[in-house]
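pinging the channel bc i need a second pair of eyes. not urgent but kinda urgent?? the chain im working w is below, pasted from the shared doc
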Amino acid sequence: MKKNRIIVLTDESGLSWDSLGLLEQQAEIYLAKGTQDTLSHLTIFSYHLILIALQQEPEIVCQFVEAIRKLVITPMIVLLPDHSEMRNKIIQVGADVVLTQLCTEEISLQAYALIRRYTEWKVERKEEIPIMVGKLEILPLQRIVEWDHKIIPVVKREFDFLHLLASTPGRVYTYSQIYHLVWQEYPHGDITNIIYCMVHRLKQKLKKVDSNAEHIISSVKEVGYCLKVNKE
């Protein structure tokens, strides 16, 4: 099963099917339907590489790259039709690689190298740094959840869910974001009910340790969930 994901934004003449064929051997590819679709997907789903190949003015591409970089830190390759004075600028605003000679093999090699380094970097970041939100404490490497120093017996997805919310307390994650990041799949089926059932079981476990513990998980109606920081 392909674990790596690449989002590609291209037009009819921006990228050859030979290039896409080589990339598909490395990762699962999503062909974006436009700039807004690209930005929307990047706010919901996680990718290992962004590839942009548009036959537009370099200034426009530059602005788009800058907008993407404000959203995510995902590696980015930009393909330009010919040598451009904007090449340096595009790198300065956020692109990792800008290619002006559209060689299929070179695109594939650069994609492979960036995905490898990004994957290694993500693994290196998994250090033993406990996350504490109020009485809730999460130990990432041991995958242990404690409430007021009492262990909560969570299963994998319950841990991943709590870890996601605790990493950014107060941030609301939508149902689609939670499903994608916790289940590691694209949303399909009745994900709202699936997530609700998991959260309900998790709240019951928290409640057994402390009757107030379950309230740290806050439901945002018709949107998703966040971790609430109680002011004591």
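so The mean pLDDT is 85. and The CA atoms of residues 207 and 223 lie 24 Å apart. — does that match what u expected or am i reading it wrong
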